[in-house]
Design a protein that fits this description.
Blueprint (H helix, E strand, L loop, with lengths): L11 H6 L5 E5 L10 E2 L1 H5 L1 H13 L3 H7 L16 E3 L15 E4 L2 E8 L3 E6 L6 H4 L5 H8 L27 H9 L15 H11 L5 E5 L4 E4 L1 H7 L11 H4 L4 H14 L3 E11 L5 E14 L4 E10 L1 H20 L5 H14 L8 E8 L10 E8 L11 E3 L8 H9 L4 E4 L24 E7 L9 E6 L8 H69 L3 E6 L4 E4 L1 H7 L9 H5 L7 H14 L1 E9 L15 H6 L11 E12 L5 E10 L1 H26 L3 E6 L4 E4 L1 H7 L13 H5 L2 H17 L3 E14 L5 E16 L5 E10 L1 H65 L10 H48 L8 E3 L1 H18 L3 E6 L1 H5 L5 E3 L1 H19 L6 E9 L11 E2 L6 H4 L12 E10 L6 H5 L11 H6 L5 H11 L3 E7 L3 E11 L3 H13 L13 E3 L21 E5 L3 H13 L3 E5 L2 H8 L11 E7 L7 H13 L10 E5 L4 H10 L3 E4 L4 H18 L1
Length: about 1350
C-alpha cells in the first residue's frame, strides 16, 4: 500500500519496515480510505491479527477503533504509561476523566500504543510480547466491558444493544476473544436471522454452545438455512469469512449444496444424524489460492416442539490421515520397484518411471533427477551432474539442463544443487524468498492440480552414511498443501527409501564386480602357482645344498634323529657343543653319557614332553671333553658392552658347558613321530652375562630405592633445564606434582626458583658447562619451609637449598646432561639468621654497655685527674715550704741568747710548723692514695666489662720489665711509708743471668696484676704487729710449676687463648721467657677454706673481709684471667697468722734487635724522669728517701718542646694542667674546643705566628668540635702544606680507656693516648717519648 503524499519524505516508513513489532498507520481525516494507510511486514506475517485490523478499519466501530480515533491525551497524561493508563477491551478504552484517551490499549492479546504525526496520521504499534491470560481477565467480564465501551445507538444504528448478547457466555479463552468480539459487533440485522435479540432461545442456547466448542461446527437455521458457525469453522471458510455469516446454505456450499440437502432430508425423515466419511474440500485462502482438505461431517437436526427448526453440522478434519495413506502407498510401491534394480543406472531409470506412473500425482507435480559423478583421480575437480530424467519439464527447459556443475558457477539452480550436496537434509526452495525464481517456473507442465508449483525440495541421495552423494532429486511440492510437518516427514521417508534401495543396488553392483574380479584372479593365480611351483622345486634343491653348507658353518649345533632317538645327522658344531663322538648313527645312550648326572632326568622329561607337544625347549649341562680347546661362544654383538661393564668372559667355566636345546618333532602319516630336529646353543657365557645383568639390575634397583628414600632431592636434567627424572623429595621441595616426564616437559628451576636467585643459578650453569666440573649454589625456592619449635609454635621461612650440579658426559667427553641433589638448608639458614639477629642484639647491647662504661669512666676519671694533680701540687708546695721553714729554723737568732726563753719559744714554733707541714703532706699523700684506689676500682670495672664481652686484648710492646715493676712499686711507696709498712723490691739473680734488657709483653696488664696484689698485701698487713711487704722478680726459660715454685698455681680451667679473642698466642720455646713475680706479706694469712674461694668473681676470703677492709672481690679474679690470657698462671701459699705469698708468671717474648734499639732510645729520653738500673740486680726499700714529685722550675735540658697547645673543655683540668706545665718551664696556650684550637694554630710559628708550638694535648670529648675531628682537620692541613716544619706531635688526653677508642684516636692521627687520671710526671714522660719518636722518624 502506498501512503499519503509526503509520508515517505519523513523517513518513518523505513523505520517501521525494519521494526519487528506489528505496526499500522490510520489516516485521521474522515474522508480517507477504509483500509489502513500503511501496514509493516511484521503485521503482515500474522495473518489472523492482520485480518482483525482490516476488519476493525472497515467497520470503523468498537472500543479499539474508538481508542484509535479518540483525541490526543492531555498534557497530564503524556508521561510514562502506568497501570491506569493501559486500556483494553475490558473497559480501559473509554475516555478518561479529563476528556482524553489512554496512550495504551490491549486488543487481540497485543499491547498497543499510539501517537500522532502532524495531526494527519495515527501510528499504532503493538508490543512483540503477548500478555498472559490473567492479564486479559479483569474484575468484570469481557461482554460487560464491551457493552459499556460500545457506541450509543444514535452513533451506530446497526449495532446490537447490550441486551442482545446476554446469552453469550461471559468467560472465554484469550485466543477466542477476538472472534467473540467480532460476533458481538456483527450486524445480524442485515441477515435473514435478524437481530440476536429476536432469536429464539433455542438458537441462542445452541449457538452459545457451538461458540465454546473447539471443533468446527456450523448451524443452519430456519427455512432459508442461514448459517452460524464458531471460530474453528471460520478457518475452513477461508476468504468467505465473515461474509458467510447469516447467508443461506447455497451461498456457503454451492458445490455440495445438493448432497447436504439430501442428507438433511434423510435426517428429517429418519430423525437421526446422517454421516459423510470422505469429502475433499478446497479452502479458498485470502491470497486467492486453494488448500486441499479432507473432511468428515454429520448432519444433526434441531427439533423444537416436534418441528425441525435447523441443523447442526459438526466437521472433523481427516486431511492428515488421507494424505498419509496416499503417500504411504506411493512409498511402498516405489520401494518394491527400486529393489529390482541391479545397477545404479537402472536404478535411476526405474525411479523416474515409478514417479511418472504414480497416481494421483498431486504430491509430486514436478521431478528432476541428476546423478553426481566424481573424478576419482582428481578429487579437487568440481563434481558434475548428469540429467537422468525429469517429470513435468519440457525438453530444453532451463530448470533441467543436461549437465550441471556443482561449483555454483552455472545458471538456473546450480547454486541450490551445490548447497544441497553439503546438506544432510532436504533443501527447501520457495518463490517467496527468491530461492525458487519465477523465471524457472514458466513453461513447466506440472502434473496433478493445474496450479503452478510455488515450492520445491532438493533431496541428496547417499547410499551410505558417508558424505558422498550419488544423486540429486528435485521434487515440486503440492501447490494446494502447505509444506508442514506431515509433508516434511513424507519427503524424509522418501529420501530414506531412496537411500536404502540405492545402497542395496550399489552393494549388488559391487558384488557382481567382485565376482568377476575373483574369477579373473583365480585364473591368473593358477598360472602363477604353476610357475611358482617350478621355481620352488628348483629352489628347494638349491636350499638343501645351501642348508648343508650353512649347517657346517653356523655356531649352532643342529641334528636330525629318528623316532627311536638315534642321531642320523649332526653338524660339527653339534658335536663340539655336546661333546658327543662323531658316530653315525649315535644312540641316545651315547648322547646321555655326555650330560652331567644331575641334568639327565631333565633330558628324559624333555623327550617325554616332545611326544605330547611336538616342540620343547630344555637347558642342560655337558662336560667338556679333555683337550677341548674350542673357545666358548660369545653373545653375538654384545661383547664390547660386557667389556665396558667389566665382565670377564674368559673366566674359568670349571669344564662345564651350559647348553640350550630346542627340539621339534615331525609326525608321519600314521600320527607317530617320524623325525626330530634338535638345535643346540652354547649359552655358557650367556648365563654369566645374565647373572651379571641380574646383579647389576639389583644394584640399580637398590640405588633407585636409596634415591627414593633419600632425604635430599635428587634429579637429572638436560643442559637447557628440562627435567629427565627426580625422586619424590625433589618434587616436594619444588612444590610440583609428580607426573610422567616422558609426556610433559618441565623446567623446574625456571618456575620454582625465586627471581632474585635466577642470575646466580644461570652463572653456575655457565661455569658448569665451561669448566666441566661439579658446581654448587645456594638458592631459594618458591615453596615455604615450615617447622614446629619447642613451644609448639609454627616457624615459616623461605626454603633454602644447597644445589649440587655434576656434569654427565658421553663417550667423547661432551656434556650431555647434568645430575645433582638439593639439600634442604632452610633450618641452618633460619638458625644463622636467628644467630645474626642475636649477634646484632648483642652488638647493640655491647654498644650501649660501652657507652655506659665510657660515660661512667669519663665522669669518674676527669675529677680524679684534677684531684691527683692538685694533690701533687699541694705536696710540692708543702715540701718547698717545709724546706724553707727548716732553713729558717736552722739559722741562729742574733738577738736572742742561746738558752733564753725567746730561743726556746722560736724553736718550739719551728718544730710545730715543721710538724704541721709534715702532717699536711701526709694528708695530701692520703688524698693521692685514695684517688689511686678509686682509679684502680674504675680500672677493675672496665677490665671486668671487657672480660665479660671477650673484648679484652693483650697488646705486647717492647719494654724493660724492671721499669714496670718499679712503677708499681713507686705507686705504693708513699702509702706504705704512711702506714709504716716496709715495702721492698728485689730482682732475683735468675733474671740477670738471662741477660734480659727488654722483652715483648703488655705492660699495662702486667702492672694491673701487680697493683692488685700489692693493694691486697698492704690492705691486710697495715694492722698487723709485723709489717713487711716484698716484691720479688725472677725469670726462667721453662714454664714454672708447683715443684719449682713456693706456691701452688691455680689450674687453668679453659684454654684462654682459644676462648679470648685478644689472648696472646703461645710463643715458640726458643723466643719465650717466663717472668715470675712474688708478693709476700706478713698479714693475718688465709685458712684452707678461704684459699679455696679465692680467684672467683665477687668473692672475698670471708664475709667479714668487705666490712673490715672493703674491696669489690674482683681484683684476684681479674688477675687470674689476665695471667691466663698471657699464657701464665697465678697461685697462693698462706697459713693463718703467718702471712701470704701470692705469685704469678706470664709468658714474654725476646724482641728483635731493631725493637730493642727503639726501646733503648725511648728509655734514654725519659732518663731524667725515671731512672732504672740496667744489667744488675738490686734492692729498693720504702725507708729510703724518695721524691714523689720532681720540681724543675724550668724546661728540662735537651728536649725541644718549647710550647704546648692544651685543648681541654673542663676548666678545672685546664687550669691545673696549664699551671703544672708552666711551673715546669713550658709555654702553654689553651683552647676550649676543636674550632678554637684551629684558630690558635693559625697564631703559632707553624702558621707564621709567634707562639712556639712543639706539641698538642688534645682532649677527645669536647663541645662544638671534638678532638678526633680537630685532629683529622690538622692532618689534612699538614698534607696540604698549610703548616711549616715537621709533623706536629698530638697526644690524645681522654677519660675513655677502651682499646677501641685508643685505636680510633690513633686512626684519626693522634701519635699517642694518655688516659685520665694521670700525674704530671707521667704526662711529661709521654710528651718526651712521643717527641723523640717523631724526631727519629723525621
Amino acid at each position: 500500500m502506498s501512503g499519503p503524499m509526503g509520508l515517505s519524505d519523513l523517513g518513518i516508513s523505513h523505520l517501521l519496515d525494519s521494526d519487528p513489532r506489528p505496526t499500522f498507520i490510520i489516516a485521521s481525516l474522515p474522508d480517507e480510505s477504509l483500509e489502513p494507510t500503511y501496514v509493516n511486514p511484521a503485521l503482515l506475517e500474522d495473518s489472523d491479527l492482520y485480518q482483525s485490523i482490516v476488519y476493525i478499519s472497515s467497520v470503523r466501530q468498537g472500543p479499539f477503533w474508538d481508542w484509535i480515533t479518540s483525541p490526543r491525551p492531555s498534557a497530564s497524561r503524556t508521561g510514562a504509561v502506568s497501570g491506569a493508563d493501559v486500556g483494553s477491551d475490558a473497559g480501559a478504552g473509554a475516555a478518561d476523566g479529563d476528556g482524553g484517551a489512554s496512550r495504551s490499549y490491549q486488543f487481540a492479546n497485543v499491547y498497543w500504543t499510539r501517537y500522532s504525526v502532524r495531526n494527519e496520521w495515527v501510528v499504532v504499534r503493538g508490543n512483540d510480547q503477548r500478555l498472559d491470560d490473567q492479564a486479559l481477565r479483569g474484575p468484570t467480564s469481557y461482554q460487560q466491558d464491551y457493552a459499556r465501551s460500545s457506541l450509543p445507538a444514535s452513533t451506530s444504528p446497526t449495532a446490537s444493544s447490550n441486551e442482545d448478547h446476554d446469552w453469550i457466555p461471559r468467560d472465554f479463552m484469550s485466543e477466542q476473544q477476538s472472534f467473540i468480539h467480532f460476533i458481538r459487533t456483527f450486524d445480524w440485522a442485515r441477515t435473514s436471522l435478524g437481530p440476536p435479540s429476536r432469536w429464539p432461545a433455542l438458537l441462542q442456547q445452541t449457538f452459545s454452545q457451538v461458540l465454546v466448542d473447539s471443533r468446527p461446527i456450523i448451524i443452519y437455521w430456519g427455512d432459508e438455512l442461514g448459517t452460524l458457525y464458531n471460530e474453528a469453522f471460520s478457518k475452513l471458510c477461508g476468504s468467505k469469512h465473515p461474509a458467510l455469516l447469516g447467508k443461506p446454505l447455497e451461498y456457503a456450499w454451492p458445490e455440495f449444496c445438493d448432497r447436504i440437502k439430501l442428507a438433511m432430508s434423510t435426517t428429517s425423515s429418519q430423525n437421526r444424524a446422517a454421516n459423510e466419511d470422505k469429502w475433499r474440500f478446497f479452502v479458498e485462502k485470502a491470497d486467492g489460492s486453494s488448500e486441499e482438505n479432507y473432511l468428515k461431517w454429520s448432519i444433526i437436526p434441531i427439533i423444537d416442539k416436534n418441528k425441525r427448526v435447523g441443523f447442526i453440522q459438526p466437521i472433523q478434519d481427516t486431511t492428515s490421515i488421507r494424505l498419509w495413506e496416499r503417500r504411504t502407498k506411493m512409498l511402498i510401491d516405489l520401494g518394491d520397484v527400486l529393489v529390482t534394480a541391479r545397477d545404479v543406472k537402472s536404478f535411476w531409470v526405474k525411479l523416474i518411471q515409478e514417479l511418472e506412473a504414480y497416481q494421483p500425482a498431486y504430491d509430486i507435480p514436478l521431478a528432476v533427477l541428476y546423478s553426481v559423478e566424481e573424478d576419482s583421480h582428481n578429487p579437487s575437480v568440481a563434481k558434475e551432474c548428469q540429467l537422468q530424467g525429469c517429470l513435468g519439464v519440457p525438453d530444453g527447459h532451463p530448470i533441467a539442463p543436461p549437465k550441471l556443475q556443482l561449483d555454483g558457477s552455472g545458471a538456473g539452480l546450480s547454486a541450490s544443487f551445490s548447497k544441497a550436496v553439503q546438506s544432510q537434509i532436504p533443501l527447501l526452495l520457495q518463490m517467496s524468498n527468491g530461492s525458487l525464481p519465477q523465471s524457472l517456473l514458466d513453461g513447466l507442465q506440472c502434473r496433478g492440480f493445474p496450479d503452478p508449483c510455488r515450492e520445491a525440495v532438493i533431496c541428496p541421495i547417499r547410499p551410505t552414511k558417508e558424505d558422498r552423494v550419488l544423486g540429486l532429486l528435485l521434487l515440486g511440492l503440492n501447490p494446494r498443501r502447505p509444506y508442514d510437518n506431515d509433508y516434511r516427514q513424507y519427503i524424509s521417508l522418501l529420501g530414506q527409501k531412496l537411500t536404502t534401495t540405492l545402497a542395496s543396488t550399489v552393494l549388488l553392483e559391487e558384488e557382481a564386480r567382485r565376482r568377476r574380479n575373483i574369477a579373473q584372479q583365480a585364473a591368473y593365480d593358477h598360472a602363477a602357482l604353476k610357475e611358482k611351483l617350478t621355481m620352488q622345486t628348483k629352489e628347494a634343491a638349491e636350499s638343501v645344498q645351501k642348508f648343508q653348507q650353512i649347517a657346517e658353518f653356523i655356531p649352532v649345533g643342529m641334528c636330525f634323529g629318528n623316532h627311536l632317538g638315534n642321531i642320523q645327522f649332526a653338524n660339527d658344531a653339534w658335536h663340539r657343543i655336546s661333546g658327543a663322538p662323531q658316530v653315525n648313527p649315535l644312540s641316545p645312550e651315547g648322547f646321555l653319557s655326555c650330560v652331567i648326572e644331575e641334568d639327565k632326568a631333565n633330558v628324559q622329561r624333555a623327550y617325554e614332553e616332545l611326544q605330547k607337544k611336538l616342540t620343547t625347549t630344555i637347558e642342560f649341562r655337558v662336560r667338556r671333553p679333555a683337550g677341548d680347546s674350542y673357545p666358548l661362544q660369545h653373545p653375538i654383538g654384545s661383547s664390547p658392552s660386557f667389556e665396558k661393564a667389566g665382565l670377564d668372559l674368559d673366566a674359568d667355566d670349571e669344564g662345564v658347558r651350559h647348553v640350550l636345546g630346542s627340539l621339534k618333532a615331525e609326525l608321519g602319516p600314521d600320527g607317530q613321530i617320524n623325525q626330530v630336529l634338535a638345535c643346540l646353543t652354547d649359552v655358557t657365557l650367556h648365563k654369566k652375562a645374565a647373572e651379571e645383568a641380574i646383579r647389576k639390575a639389583q644394584q640399580a634397583e637398590n640405588l633407585k630405592r636409596m634415591a627414593e628414600l633419600a632425604t635430599v632431592g635428587m634429579y637429572d636434567m638436560t643442559l637447557d633445564g628440562r627435567l629427565l627424572g627426580a625422586n619424590n623429595v625433589f618434587f616436594e621441595m619444588c612444590g610440583l606434582d609428580r607426573m610422567d616426564l616422558s609426556e610433559v616437559s618441565i623446567k623446574p628451576f625456571e618456575t620454582c626458583v625465586v627471581d632474585e636467585d635466577l642470575a646466580a643459578l644461570e652463572k653456575t650453569f655457565a661455569k658448569l658447562v665451561k669448566e666441566g666440573k661439579s658446581q654448587t649454589a645456594e638458592i631459594r625456592l618458591r615453596t615455604q619451609w615450615t617447622e614446629t619449635d619447642t613451644t609448639g609454635g609454627q616457624i615459616t621461612s623461605p626454603r633454602w637449598v644447597l644445589a649440587t650440579f655434576m656434569p654427565v658426559t658421553n663417550s667423547e667427553g661432551v656434556i650431555q646432561t647434568f645430575t645433582g641433589c638439593l639439600s634442604d638448608v632452610s633450618l641452618q639458614k633460619w638458625q644463622f639468621e636467628k644467630e645474626r639477629e642475636r649477634k646484632d642484639e648483642a652488638i647493640e647491647s655491647k654498644r650501649q654497655q660501652e657507652n655506659f662504661i665510657d660515660m661512667t669512666s669519663h665522669e669518674m676519671r676527669n675529677p680524679l685527674s684534677a684531684i691527683i694533680q692538685c694533690a701533687d701540687a699541694v705536696i710540692g708546695c708543702l715540701t718547698k715550704a717545709q724546706e724553707l721553714v727548716g732553713a729558717q729554723c736552722a739559722k741562729p737568732d742574733d738577738e736572742s741568747a742561746p738558752g733564753s726563753s725567746t730561743t726556746d719559744s722560736s724553736a718550739r714554733r719551728c718544730l710545730g710548723a715543721v710538724q704541721l707541714l709534715k702532717d699536711s703532706i701526709d694528708n695530701a699523700e692520703t688524698i693521692i692514695a685514695c684517688s689511686q684506689h678509686q682509679k684502680r676500682i674504675v680500672d677493675d670495672i672496665l677490665t671486668m666489662s671487657k672480660l665479660d664481652s671477650k673484648l679484652l686484648s693483650i697488646t705486647p710492646i717492647t719494654v724493660n720489665p724492671v721499669n714496670i715493676a718499679q712503677e708499681a712499686y713507686k705507686m705504693f711507696e708513699v702509702e706504705a711509708r704512711r702506714v709504716d709498712i716496709e715495702l721492698e723490691m728485689r730482682v732475683d739473680r735468675s733474671y740477670t743471668d738471662l741477660s734480659i734488657e727488654f722483652l715483648d709483653l703488655d705492660p699495662s696488664r702486667l702492672k694491673q696484676v701487680l697493683i692488685n696484689l700489692l693493694t691486697n698485701a698492704l690492705k691486710f698487713t697495715k694492722n698487723g704487729p709485723k709489717r713487711n711487704v716484698s716484691i720479688t722478680m725472677s725469670a726462667s726459660r721453662s714454664r714454672p710449676d708447683d715443684a719449682s715454685s713456693s706456691v701452688q698455681f691455680i689450674p687453668r680451667a679453659v684454654d684462654m687463648a682459644g676462648q679470648m679473642d685478644g689472648a696472646a698466642p703461645p710463643a715458640s720455646e726458643r723466643n719465650s721467657v717466663y717472668l715470675m713475680f712474688e708478693v709476700k706479706d706478713t698479714g693475718q694469712g688465709l685458712t684452707k677454706e678461704e684459699k679455696s674461694s679465692l680467684f672467683q668473681r665477687f668473692v672475698q676470703a670471708n664475709s667479714k673481709t668487705h666490712v673490715k677492709y672493703g674491696g669489690s672481690g674482683l681484683g684476684l679474679f681479674i688477675s687470674r684471667r689476665l695471667t691466663e690470657m698471657q699464657n701464665g698462671a697465678i697461685g697462693v701459699a698462706s697459713s693463718p697468722g703467718e702471712g701470704s705469698n701470692f705469685a704469678f708468671y706470664i709468658e714474654a717474648r725476646i724482641p728483635s734487635e731493631e725493637a730493642c734499639q727503639d726501646a733503648r732510645a725511648a728509655a734514654e729520653a725519659v732518663g731524667n724522669i725515671l731512672q732504672a738500673p740496667r744489667g744488675a740486680f738490686g734492692k729498693w726499700s720504702s725507708k729510703e728517701p724518695f721524691k714523689t714529685m720532681a720540681k724543675p722550675t724550668k724546661k728540662l735540658p735537651g728536649l725541644d718542646i718549647e710550647g704546648v697547645l692544651l685543648v681541654e673543655d673542663n676548666l678545672i683540668n685546664q687550669q691545673i694542667t696549664r699551671r703544672d706545665l708552666v711551673t715546669r718551664g713550658y709555654a702553654v696556650e689553651v683552647a676550649n674546643h676543636g674550632v678554637e684550637a684551629l684558630e690558635k694554630l693559625e697564631k703559632t710559628d707553624r702558621a707564621g705566628g709567634e707562639f712556639p708550638l712543639g706539641l698538642i694535648l688534645m682532649d677527645i670529648e669536647m663541645p662544638v668540635q671534638d678532638g678526633l675531628t680537630c685532629t683529622r682537620k690538622i692532618r689534612e692541613l699538614e698534607k696540604a702544606g698549610h703548616f711549616k716544619g715537621p709533623r706536629i706531635p698530638i697526644i690524645a688526653v681522654s677519660a675513655n680507656a677502651r682499646m677501641e677508642q685508643i685505636t680510633e684516636a690513633n686512626d684519626a692521627g693522634c701519635d699517642d693516648v694518655l688516659v685520665k687520671p694521670f700525674r704530671i710526671p707521667e704526662l711529661i714522660e709521654k710528651m718526651i717519648t712521643v717527641t723523640k719518636r717523631i724526631e727519629r722518624i723525621s
